[in-house]
Amino acid sequence: MTKLVHNLGLSETLSFYDVYSIDDPELLSFIPRPALALLLVFPVTKTYEEAKRIEDIDKPEYNGSGDEEPVIWFKQTIKNACGMFGVLHGVCNGAARSFIGISQPPI
Questions:
Q1: Which domains does the chain have, with CATH numbers?
Q2: Considering the chain, what percentage of its residues have pLDDT values greater than 90?
Q3: Contact, 73 vs 62, CB < 8 A?
């Protein structure tokens, strides 16, 4: 992921790290601070999908856009692209936004 986001124009000072536990201090100790985003990858099951559908049934779909919105949101329309959309959301919001710059793409 780190090389990908650098090729897309993010600062070379931004890096991604694998986290093997979110509750074991020893496994978290090697992650540099501050962490600007955490992407959680977990298996999606039919049970999870049904619970999520029920949880979201009365929530309106987010349709905000423009400079006045508190976040930049990308609707995932490509199946199995959740990791890439997580990266987009992570780097386009909060303090990570300051790492976006103009760079020359590699040849």
A1: 2-99 (3.40.532.10)
A2: 37
A3: yes
